[in-house]
Design a protein that fits this description.
single chain, mainly alpha, two-stranded parallel sheet, globular
Length: 80
């Protein structure tokens, strides 16, 4: 199912919900930067979330085979 929304529209709808103080989400501090990456890059949200986690946790290093991470300036992809 598609809702025919562009990335900016999706982020504009989700950001206020995620920012609600009463809403408890695991790793909320990574969700907002992930939404920003999602809005400005042609990456899947799960990749954007992995990028946000990597930047917070380990200086931008990601272990994996997904070549999409090579396109992100602040990420260093390392093969396992």
């Amino acid at each position: 199912m598609t809702y025919k929304l562009n990335r900016a529209q999706v982020v504009a709808l989700l950001r206020p919900i995620v920012e609600l103080e009463a809403l408890k989400i695991d790793h909320k501090a990574s969700i907002l930067p992930a939404l920003a990456y999602f809005e400005s890059n042609n990456l899947d949200f799960e990749d954007c979330l992995a990028i946000a986690h990597a930047l917070r946790a380990n200086d931008g290093r990601i272990y994996g085979y997904d070549l999409d991470f090579d396109k992100v300036k602040d990420i260093t992809r390392l093969e396992p």
